[in-house]
Records
---
Amino acid sequence: MKSKLVALLVASSALGLTSTASFAQVAGAQPLGVSVEVSTAIIDGWSVKKSVLNKPVINDQGQKVGVIHDIIVAPDKSVSFAIIAANQFLGVSHHDVAIPIEQLDVKDGKFVLAGATKDAIKALPEFQYNKVKAAPIPRAAFEHH
C-alpha cells in the first residue's frame, strides 16, 4: 500500500496538467500538456490539495497525531517528505516535522503513521522552511536532461 501512496502522490503532483486531448507528434516539436496515457494516470491519482493537505494523520490505534501541511517534492520529482503539523491550534501550526513519505500508509482512506504518538512527533526536530529552496532547479541543471 505504501508504494501505491507514493505513486498516487507523484501522479497528483503533476500540478494542473489534466488535459485529456491527444496531441499529434511532430518531428522536432514537443507538445504542451500531457498525453492520453499520462492524463489517465492523473485521473487515477490524487489531488494533493483535495485529498492530502490538511488531512489528519493517525497512528495504528486510530489516535490523531498530526495534520499534513505540505508535501516536499525532491529535485528528481519524487515525493520525498510529508510535513506534518504536530501541534495545531485554530489552523496555525506550532511545530512542523518532516516525515519520510515511505513511513506513511493509507488504511480505510486515512493516513497512518504506525507507532507514532503526539509526544513522539513533538519530540522530533522542527522542520524549517528557510532551509528549503524557494524556487525549483532548472531542468538543464540535471544530468539526465
---
Amino acid sequence: MTPTLVRRHRPSPSPPRSRVRDWAEIQERMLVPLYEAVYERLEVDDGTRLLSLGCGSGLALLMAASRGATVSGIDTDERRLDLARERLAAHPSSVPVRLGHGGVDCVVDPADPPFTLVTAFDPLYCAGGGAREMAEALRQAAARARRGAPVVLAGWGPPERCAASGALRVAARLADPMATAAHWRPSGRDDLEDLARMAGLRPDGSGRVACPYGYADLASAVRGLLSTGAFDAATRTTDQEQVSKELTEAVHPYLRGDGTVWMPNVFRYLIARV
C-alpha cells in the first residue's frame, strides 16, 4: 500500500448530521445475521413481548415485529430513535410500539404484562459509561421481564476472527485513555458472562454468528464504521480528518479488485435468564 493510493481513496469526513443516516443505510444491516440467529433460536413470534436496549434506528425491532412480536425499545440517541419511529410507523401492525430516550420506565406501562425477551445487541449502548452502567440497565430491564425470560447480550468474537479488529484498534489507539466514553477493546472470553452475572442474570447458552461487513466502496466503509460510535472518543481527542485518514489505512487491505470492501467478522451472543 502506497501513501498515494491511500490518499486517492480517502473520503472526506461526513457531516455530523449524516452519521445517523450512515448507520441506518450502511452499517446496521451488517448485524442482520445476528438478529436472525437469535430470533430463530428463541422462536420469536406473536407471543413475544420484546424490550430492546440500544435499539438504534430500529432494524432489529422491525424484524421482530415482522415475526408478530410486540416491541419496545430505548436508546441514548434521539436521532436514531426518530428513524426507528419512522420505520415502525410504516409497519403494517396494529400493535402499538413504544420507543423512548432514557431508562426502561419511559416505555413501560404498569398495566402491561411483563416482557418475555430483552435484547442488548449493541455493546456501545451505554456510551459514556461502562460495565457497571450496562449492568444497571440490564437489572432495570430484568425487573420488568417475566421470571425465566431470556436476556440476550452480544459482543465481538475473537479478534483473530474479526477483520474489523484492525480498524477498531484505531479507535482505541487514538482515544484518550482517560476518556469515560466507551470504545473498543478486544473481547475477553467471559466478558458477556461476567456482565450477565453483574446484572444478577444466569447465563444459559451462547452462540457465534458470522456478520461480514460488506461495503460498496472504501468511502462507504469508512462512513459506516464511523457511524457505529466506536470512534467518538478518538475524534474528540484528535479530529475527524485524522481518524478518517487512519481508519482508511486500516480498512484498505480489505479493498477488493472491483472496488468493494469485504471484512469477515464473528459476533458472539449470550443468552442469560432473569
